[in-house]
């Protein structure tokens, strides 16, 4: 079971690819929603208001992916899909890649366009800091004070990360567990006398 994903945490530096007087500016942005992607697009459209095309692709999700690729007026599949192909090739997600084109007066043909958009997207990704994260599940462990030592020992033995503790009349501790270890950890707490555990939606 794959329980890691790759993404970027900050926008990549602007890159530029030129072909026969046409300029292709490439950008990569970290995004978590389609609305965020649209905001970056609007910013680039005002920054490059004299450009001819703002082609892009994005992919969202950690294991169930959704994506969109847009040719923005270029011939069908000559821009958006080559950009998306680079997202797949670098295996990144929660990312938006935009390539802004200034037309240089010479038509490049579909093959030339595919190459230009692919190269600008690739250059943007090569400049980005790509980081690998684990896909985690969050559990709520509930217990009374006498069980505190047992719970803390289990957390320590299994090197679990505690996200939050609520210690009032009864105790609740929230832990984060790598997806592939989640079932085993769940069982350990579930089979401990007087300790409750449940999966949290997150």
UniProtKB/TrEMBL annotation:
PANTHER family: IMPACT FAMILY MEMBER YIGZ, IMPACT-RELATED. InterPro entries: Impact, Impact_N, Impact_N_sf, Ribosomal_Su5_D2-typ_SF. Residues 20-125 form the Impact N-terminal domain. It comes from the Bacteria. SUPFAM superfamilies: Ribosomal protein S5 domain 2-like. Coiled coil: none annotated. This is YigZ family protein. It holds the Pfam family Impact_N. Belongs to the IMPACT family.
